[in-house]
Design goal:
Rossmann fold, 4 domains, Dna Ligase, domain 1, 7-stranded mixed beta sheet, alpha/beta, homodimer
């Protein structure tokens, strides 16, 4: 959807302009305070001649200009008539603050929203809302925002979209954040979250995208936007509800969003390098960090520097818990630090400088610069809690010393981290911010933001298959058809998945013939879509040796299964060579109705249900991605060999995972599930074998 | 050690009193600002007649009073002479700010600290420090503190001890914290962390103990203090370095503390119900929460209430990730809320009240009180981000409505939680604080503090064996002696651990005789302290049947082992019945040189090294504690039965764990390790069996 008239209108009408407390008043006030050019901003109210000293027109028709954007501050009943009047003057977009729509969770509310959507389509208008707070485009100086919020001097690189008005206001209140655009999108019935995302991905002034999402409405466009952002290396930071069962319930009810499966969303984030955060402060500090940095670190090696042993220990522990890497300093760095710092400093990373440098700006700058110059260090941060009363010589020393070090090693980012929440000295914060030095919040949030940054830096789009396989609408609502193991194997094999199908014997003679052609012991299993639990039905014989035993087993299996499952249609007997035992894993596909096939890999064997050591990832995928899946298992050490054993054939397993992903993508509109349980993975060079396979299709 | 003269002196001398920038000046300023009674506080400096308008004496001898406490603001060389002069006037305690001791990590520093310790002992003085920041006793209005910090109006229930001066100053700067005592203890060479802990445990004015610890110096006293605190239900909140390898290295080098094993310290905290926090903000918010509450919640069911759907979702997810319980509201509560709130509210826990109550104080109070009255709710918190500009009617409404609800349901605690860090409106903070309503910091820290509170509430001292088994000094430095399996089993059995010893056959005839007495197949294993790896040496035969086979196996084992291990002294052959296979676990003891025997329980079998699913806990322990250990395993579901199997015999396993713990306590001064690997745990009622056992003693 084209959002030019909505987010970059040349002219704008505020309907319901007023000086009286309410949305109309705040919108006018915001417009007057933050619109760069008011010449084509028009107020409309039937009762007033002027509002806040500006001319007010009695109705839309009286406005002496064409209209790009209509901002409707009036109530729900007035919305569609107003849109119709504005459309007559060329209006292509509207902001609808009014509530009373789907968020009411009533049939009436749903009906009104449907009517609004139809009107928008009929009038060809891009409508923000309903039940929204509006937006501010700080790049172009355009403001249609329903609530009081500080937006002056806040133009910058963060594009922020929120489905919640409250969260949008709180973000706008963060003194250190600078925005290109901030949208409180409300119900997003017409213009959807994906439209705003697309706008921010393409917008050159938006360097960091931050989103608060309750759900995804258009999965194919959503993933396509993520692909473009990944290719541009533009960070996307997402706070999405639904990590918990209660959070999913909240999201599903609030603004009627489809919350979707959380594990699937998590997997998508990993594929597209999206930074998923856990709460508002995490969103704020991560977006703020990314936007304040003038350059990204070249790698993921952090140096931590503090002024006391206690703080150094906290940085060591908290960084470790967050997953930060603190590389050792080179001997050269340590030697240089020993020249500079007192002997009772702690000459390691994290570094305890002692408090001495806090009294000596040059000493501080030299010590910090020495650390930053270390070849193992990609980014540094200094732990120093800034308080309201951080003033005077000491504080100035600290700020200037840190800035001096940063200017001396301008190729590597440097940040300041606080250990506790305090009201903080505004002058210091701005002094750092203006120099491009982010001030991070209390330890845990700071460490989380740095870890998000490290993950973003480590992500390489070229290692990922950035394609989606969104299935047809309605998948999963039809009838399930469970293929027999033989048909499952054939379907997979015909597509190109490398696995043995075995042979299907329809008669005892065929069974004897096939058995004669296979060296070693055999496994024989009933073929029937009506017998999913083959062993329980007496449909399996293992370790059958030679044609004669195979023939006898053929008759025996048929007889037993017929007795136990008299209704089942039996198609024959599957004959395979017995597989040597290997390390057991599971490999499967779950086809998500929103985002399509998800590959599942996990530890198999008797403890599979107890340990639940499995990982999900969207198909299609590259071998690098399959390898990363295996590495992310808790039991990943198995692949490297245990108890002096050899490593496993990870290459062969990855090939199978990739092939299964391709199979799933090709069958995305019919495949419901695929289960390979177990897959035997043998030692390196010995390959893998699929011991059982089951495909479930939708008819 | 008696700390009365140190922490509650009747008279005090400040040596080095001065108006010139430095420790002496700040100490005098602090004394004048915060000492309740200055009449027996004396300044000493050879050059001044007055300091800050008060009389100054030329030397200690001139002070016209007996002296309880000497505060030494002068440098290291002056310390011992000053102590000697003061001792002549009855002085029993000193605060030594001077540095230049063990924190220098030089032989000279260590020597000086040793001299100081000897002087303190000789003069019978309780010395705080050296290299310390002093303390403030806010209960009694006594202050000997070397740095500027706001301490006015801060008397309250938190006793805080810190080994780091920087962290102590930051805690004192937290506007919401109220202290009984705050100590920056420095190197703690003479008065140790355990002395301060003991003081705070016994001090009636200290309701919450908060500590920043680098290490424990006196394990037996430390655990004894923890026991007393647990029995008194006085919360102990500890920030201890050493969660990470780098953190342990930092702690070990900084102030020369013995950091100890982090897993052991964690286990101790679980046993004694100590709240272990991760960083300064976590320490601060947890201690602040505990101290502000006028009553503890009766249980661990939280109600979360917010003003928007987005914030409600964040509370749901963040609470879930932190491990909070959000019980469902009763139907009665939901019905009552439906009467009060608009229809588009979210009537669940977490509750989305919508923003409507924020404009209507009574509505807010009624909705909140309805939630608090729910029988499933033990404590509530409302998500509302307080900012500097949270002023005016809206903010007053919120504060008064929340206070009104709290006054209506005074039996249950209520808190306010912020979603982001901001400078916060001081008036609001105080308005809540004064009413006994804690204001929690940004989400993640708030959730962590609430979880700590829940854990403290759920802890029952009567379920824990609150005894320590600290071993003799020097354990682990002697020679290791690995007992044979037979001797290991006999030692355990003789103590009372219920396990089969099997029979030791010295001759073929004995082997035949013993075999005749055991029904079913046998296992036969070589007995020799020189053959720890019995299987590798050919020293094991399984599934031996009957006396005849047993006799042949006897000769065969001896022959094979003699050939492979010609130097080994062979003591005979152990004959046991073959054990039926069961679910495999490991059970062991690691004797920690500081804290004594730690019981280790974990998942056994082939994946043990890969999954590392094990838990550590201090001996002795009760059956409840053994059960909690098993429940804390990732694979705990095994005990309840998997794949339709029966539950396992947890009772029998717990008995064995308890017995092994008792064995370890009895042998705490000689036992190094015990390994039972595997222990077979059978189905409920079928008991357990120890398949192998190995004891390592120190000679």
């Amino acid at each position: 959807m084209d959002l030019q008239k909505l987010l970059r209108p040349r002219s704008m009408v505020i309907l319901g302009a007023s000086e009286k407390y309410g949305l109309g008043s705040d919108t006018c006030r915001n417009a007057q305070a933050f619109c760069r050019d008011l010449s084509r901003v028009y107020y409309v109210h039937p009762k007033y001649d002027t509002v806040f000293g500006r001319k007010c027109y009695p109705d839309i028709a009286s406005v002496p200009d064409s209209i790009d954007l209509l901002v409707i501050c009036t109530n729900q009943r007035t919305v569609i008539p107003a849109m119709e009047q504005a459309a007559a003057k060329g209006c292509g977009a509207a902001v609808v603050y009014a509530s009373g729509y789907s968020e009411m969770r009533t049939p009436e509310g749903l009906r009104l929203e449907e009517e609004l959507a139809q009107a928008a389509q009929r009038l060809d208008m891009a409508v923000m809302g309903p039940n929204c707070g509006g937006y501010v485009n700080l790049t172009d100086g355009i403001c249609s925002f329903a609530f009081a919020a500080p937006m002056g001097g806040k133009a910058g690189g963060i594009g922020f979209f929120s489905q919640s008005g409250q969260l949008c206001i709180n973000m706008l209140n963060c003194p250190e954040l600078r925005f290109s655009l901030a949208v409180s999108g409300g119900n997003c019935r017409i213009v959807q979250p994906e439209d705003y995302l697309e706008y921010m991905v393409e917008d050159e002034d938006t360097r960091v995208i931050a989103m608060y999402l309750e759900g995804v409405k258009d999965p194919a466009r959503f993933t396509d936007c993520l692909r473009r952002a990944a290719e541009k290396r533009k960070p996307v930071v997402v706070l999405k509800m639904g990590r918990s069962p209660k959070g999913r319930a909240t999201a599903a009810s609030h603004t009627g969003s489809l919350a979707g499966s959380d594990g699937v969303f998590d997997a998508l984030c990993r594929k597209y390098g999206v930074i998923r955060v856990e709460d508002m402060q995490d969103l704020r500090s991560t977006a703020g960090l990314l936007a304040t940095l003038r350059r990204l670190p070249a790698g993921t090696g952090f140096a931590s520097v503090s002024l006391s042993g206690g703080e150094t220990g906290i940085c060591a522990d908290s960084g470790y818990l967050a997953g930060l890497e603190y590389p050792d300093f080179t001997p050269r760095t340590v030697a240089a630090l020993r020249e500079i710092l007192p002997p009772y400093a702690g000459f390691a990373n994290p570094l305890d400088m002692t408090s001495m440098p806090s009294y000596d700006r040059d000493l501080l700058a030299r010590a910090l610069a020495t650390v930053m110059e270390d070849e193992n260090v990609d980014m540094g941060f200094i732990g120093w809690t800034i308080r309201e009363d951080s003033t005077g010589d000491f504080a100035q020393n600290m700020m200037l010393g840190i800035r001096q070090a940063y200017e001396k090693v301008p190729s590597k980012p440097l940040a300041v981290m606080s250990f506790m929440e305090f009201s903080r000295n505004r002058e210091l914060l701005e002094g750092f911010q203006d120099a491009g030095i982010p001030v991070l919040p209390s330890t845990r949030y700071a460490m989380a933001a740095l870890k998000h940054l490290a993950d973003f830096v480590a992500y390489r789009p070229e290692d990922h298959a950035l394609a989606s396989a969104v299935p047809r609408p309605g998948l999963g609502q039809g009838k399930r058809r469970i293929l027999s193991e033989y048909d499952s194997r054939r379907l997979l094999r015909d597509f190109g998945v490398e696995l043995d199908t075995g042979a299907a014997a329809a008669t005892r003679r065929e069974a004897e013939e096939y058995a004669a052609g296979i060296a070693g012991p055999l496994a024989m299993k009933i073929i029937s879509e009506d017998v999913p639990h083959k062993t329980d039905a007496g449909g399996v014989r293992l370790n059958v040796r030679g044609p004669k035993e195979a023939g006898a087993a053929f008759d025996d299996i048929l007889k037993t299964v017929r007795a136990r499952c008299p209704q089942a249609r039996l198609e024959g007997i599957l004959i395979q060579r017995m597989l040597p035992p290997g390390r057991e894993f599971i490999l499967g596909i779950q086809n998500d109705p929103q985002f399509g096939p998800m590959v599942l890999v996990g530890l198999g064997g008797v403890l599979v249900e107890v340990l639940r050591d499995a990982v999900l990832y969207p198909a299609p995928l590259k071998e690098e991605e399959a390898r990363a899946m295996l590495e992310s298992l808790r039991s990943a050490a198995l692949f490297r060999g245990v108890r002096g054993g050899n490593p496993l054939d990870v290459d062969a397993f990855c090939r199978l995972i990739v092939q299964v992903g391709e199979f799933a993508v090709a069958h995305k509109d019919t495949l419901l599930e695929l289960d390979m349980n177990p897959v035997f993975v043998y030692e390196a060079g010995q390959g893998i074998a699929v011991a059982d396979a089951l495909v479930v299709l939708e008819e």
